[in-house]
Amino acid sequence: MATALIILGAGMGTRMNSDMPKVLHEIACAPMLVHAMKSGAALDPKRTVIVAGHGAAQVEKAAKAFDPDLVLAIQSEQLGTAHAVSQARDALDGFAGDVLVLYGDTPFIRPETLAAMSAARVTHDVVVLGFEAADPGRYGRLIMKDDQLDRIVEFKDASDEERAVTLCNSGVIAAQSKTLFELIDAVSNDNAAGEYYLTDIIGIARHRRLTATVVRCDEAETLGINSRGELAEAEALFQARARSDAQSDGVTLTAPNTVFFAHDTVVGRDTVIEPNVVFGPGVTIESGATIRAFSHLEGCHVSRGAVIGPYARLRPGAELAENVKIGNFVEVKNAQVAEGAKVNHLSYIGDAAVGARSNIGAGTITCNYDGVFKHKTTIGEDVFIGSNTMLVAPVTVGDGAMTGSGSVVTKDVPPGDLAVARAKQENKAGFAVRLFEKLKARKAKGS
Ligand code: UD1
Ligand code: CA
Asked: Among the residues of 43-144, which ranges form H helices?
């Protein structure tokens, strides 16, 4: 059955104490909303509707960066979860398949769990995702009757007996589009919170002789984020899982707890990641690479056999070919470094291409920015760039060329040439001795 997603994210998230909408706070470098969208993507949704209210423009921008086709529905007043879902009605006009409701602040639902819900939909009109709560707290309680889900009671409205139930509502609900909106039309706000509860659709459905059931998942999957503390816990959970997944995929982590992955980091087999490495978004590392301690990587591609760091910084657009070496205190941005090239010490390589087997001496800088525009540096194959060369872009150094250390290179260097662009050295005989004596004498006089 074709599926559409409705992701609720209009709530203010008061407890985050933030100017930013709650669902945009990040876990592993992606807004929690994007994590929910990624879970939902497992069902190959035909349409995705995000219900936003507080900071809707910001929410739209962040969500569309991940899925440009999604539709935003605005809930300008937060009157409850059923009211929120009903805001998606127009966006789903003409859609006859199943609708799955997710929360934008619940980032860890597994694709397998959503697949189980889809499967349960074949035999039941409404499917709710539930979990056995260690501490059921203020969650809605799932009240079973025989083998059916009979109703959901919100904590505020529950009797003592109902509060004793430990099977809780995650908030995730699936039903056929027409059924869902018909049920929502019947929801009132006659309850302790004065809200339109989405959870009321179960009681209404049963009353109408429709069937309802619960798919159960682990409590960790339904973890919702309401505060900065919970955001940090969610980050920790994500990282724990990402580290263990990397290890299962054949990646060596010398000190796993000190490595931080982004939501989309891809690392190949037999790569070694040393302690204290941080991945920003958009990193792919092929098999058999080594990422040495204290390196930071973002938006880059590292090929097989490359060695990065220690203390390296790879920024967006760094494309490193096989067996490249990037050493300590080297920053690479928007640059292609070809096979076997080496940039081993204290350099900045930005907006550049470095040819195969070239060696970039310590302290070399591609001066890419003139204060207004960025310019490109092109370095050929088998080039030797002397230490502390300033390559003032735009500039090209041809294949097999060299630069003398300390050169400020402003003109292209033809292939095979040596460019020396620095002041000529002059030695003044005995001058140092005389100067030292003069200075020491002045110190002795106390002046
Ligand atoms: C809801 C459920 C509860 C469940 C719990 C799980 C209802 C009535 N209750 O309670 O059974 O155990 O989630 O976490 O559904 N939202 C809107 N617009 C609104 C109200 C909420 O978009 O008008 C969004 C929020 O941004 C959030 C989600 O819906 O992403 C859940 O809302 P929240 O107020 O946190 O629901 P709970 O009271 O926690
Ligand atoms: Ca909540």
From this structure: 56-66, 81-86, 111-121
**CATH code of the domain in which 119 resides:** 3.90.550.10
Interacting residues of 102 by C-beta distance below 8 A, sequence separation 6+: 5, 6, 7, 8, 36, 39, 40, 109, 171, 172
- Work out the average pLDDT over 7-23: 93
**Residue 414: pLDDT over 70:** yes
Q: Is the pLDDT of residue 285 over 80?
A: yes
User: Which CA distances in Å does 100 have to 1, 79, 300?
Assistant: 12, 20, 35
DSSP string for 8-53: EE----GGG--SS-GGGSEETTEEHHHHHHHHHGGG--SEEEEEEB
- Per DSSP bridges, beta strands 296-297 and 98-103 are unpaired
Whether 439 is covered by a domain: the verdict is no
Q: Are 33 and 24 in contact (CB under 8 A)?
A: yes
Is residue 256 located within the same domain as residue 398?
Answer: yes
- Among 20, 81, 83, which is best to mutate for testing ligand 1, by the most ligand atoms less than 8 A from CB? 81
Residue 87 contacts residue 80 (beta carbons within 8 Å): no
The vertex-172 CA angle with 169 and 175, nearest 5°, equals: 115
252 and 215 within one domain: no
Is the pLDDT at 34 greater than 80? The verdict is yes
Task: Please work out whether the CB of residue 80 comes within 6 Å of at least one atom of ligand 1.
Answer: yes
Rounded Cα gap, residues 142 and 216, in angstroms: 11
54 given a catalytic annotation:
no
% pLDDT > 70, the chain:
100
CA of 32 to the centre of ligand 1 (A): 15
Strand partners, 73: 51
Determine the structural domain holding residue 394 and report its residue range.
228-419
**276 in the same domain as 164:** no
The rounded distance, in Å, linking the Cα atoms of 272 and 251 is 6
- Residue 84 vs residues 70, 81, 341: alpha-carbon distances, Å: 17, 5, 56
Rounded to two decimals, the pTM is: 0.92
How many structural domains does the chain have? Answer: 2
Looking up tokens 């402003």 gives 410
